[in-house]
Amino acid sequence: MRKKRILLLSEGFGKGHTQAAHALSGELRQSSSDMITRVIELGAFLHPTLAPWVFSAYRRTVTSQPRLYGMLYRNHYDKRPSRVASLVLHRIFYSQTKAVIKQLKPDMIVCTHPFPSIIVSRLKRAGLNVPLFTVITDYDVHGTWIDSAVDKYLVSTPLVRERLMDCGVQDKRIEVTGIPVHPNFRKAHSKEQIRQEFGLKAMPTVMVMGGGWGVFKKEEKEEMLTYLASWSKDIQLLICLGTNEKARLQLLEEDAFRQPNVHLIGYTTEISKLMDISDLLVTKPGGMTCTEAMAKGIPMLFYSPIPGQEEKNCTYFQENGYGQRITSVAMIDHWFKLLLEQYPELAKRRTDIREGYNEEERSCATAIIEYLEQSDKRSYIQASSKTPLIQW
């Protein structure tokens, strides 16, 4: 019997969307041996030369002009993409999407970024007969996610479900599943082995993450990172800088970060292990990173949320007791003293977070598998094949 093919489409505007796609891919393959999955960052696949320029421009706007980004986010918060906008997006950047779909012949398409969802929705209106699921990877929903051609939305919380319904999406097209996390974040690793692997000590440990691109603005480095490092006599710091090797090397040149208990970590696929030995996470409130932290049960402190989705995420996490936004160094002092003087209380909080997170009703993978079991064989629209050959 032919295995079911799930095509997961993401985009490279930050790492969280693609992390969610890979996490869901892992969940599906772990849940059923009858599944084949493929994750594609669609814009980068179709335009490998142009896409990095577009993503770089987006990153510069978000990091250097957050107020402008926030204004654009708010101005279009309740607006769905118009037919003209989706056509322009298709013509300029995604014109070969239907050729990719024709080659792969998926039984379902799952989008973890609104742009691929917009494009596939447009193709469905033009005759594509493939179920489309859209996974919203934040704790709020912007108008760009919403389209009548989406068969089902998989969302993080009942509040996001209500927000979609307020925007006219039918209840039956929404399911609360939580944001998918890789199976590694749902299992515990040996702390002793992790410490040996990374050369770490058995002492209170704080993990610091710099957002999807592994960057800290200059003022954040000077004001926050340097202050955190001043605690390194008593607290072990794991500062994760992602792919920004330049920033890591710059920090290594400063005395404050050349301390035995300060570890500057570049790109790694072992974040789930590092979270297991961390007692507190200092991070930007990105939907994916914070969901992974909740799966591990780590209390969080948030810094510099980007106006827009990160502010909305931050509000949700604070209101539900998962963490606090850093408003002063006094708040850092408070949490670090808790870590040093009232560790059992902080450990209990960690257990409560983990148990609360794991009470999700159903996973994204379960919702997808059940839908496919009930669906009929689908047909595909015809398309030209002027695109690189792609296989499962």
How would you describe this structure to a colleague?
With 392 residues, the protein is α/β, with parallel strands linked by helices. It contains 17 helices and 12 strands. A 6-stranded parallel β-sheet has the order 2-1-3-4-5-6, with helices on both faces. A 6-stranded parallel β-sheet has the order 9-8-7-10-11-12, sandwiched between helices. α1 (16-31) packs across α17 (364-374). The longest helix is centred in the first third of the chain and has 16 residues, at 16-31. The radius of gyration is 21 Å and the shape is globular. The mean pLDDT is 86.
Our estimate of the beta-strand percent is 5-15%
The spatial strand order of the largest sheet comes to 2-1-3-4-5-6
Q: What about the largest sheet?
A: 6 strands, parallel
User: Quaternary status of these chains?
Assistant: single chain
- What string, H for helix and E for strand, traces the elements in order? EHEHHHHHEHEEHEHEHEHEHEHEHEHHH
Helix content: 40-55%
Rg to the nearest angstrom? 21 Å
Distance between the termini: 17 Å
Low-confidence runs: none
What class would the helix/strand composition place it in?
alpha/beta
Mean pLDDT: 86
Q: SSE layout and pairings?
A:
Blueprint: E1 4-10, H1 16-31, E2 35-41, H2 42-46, H3 50-64, H4 66-75, H5 83-93, H6 97-104, E3 108-111, H7 114-125, E4 132-135, E5 152-155, H8 158-166, E6 174-176, H9 191-198, E7 205-209, H10 218-229, E8 236-240, H11 245-252, E9 262-265, H12 271-276, E10 280-283, H13 287-296, E11 300-302, H14 309-319, E12 323-325, H15 329-341, H16 343-357, H17 364-374
Parallel strand pairs: 1-2, 1-3, 3-4, 4-5, 5-6, 7-8, 7-10, 8-9, 10-11, 11-12
Helix pairs in contact: 1-17, 3-4, 5-7
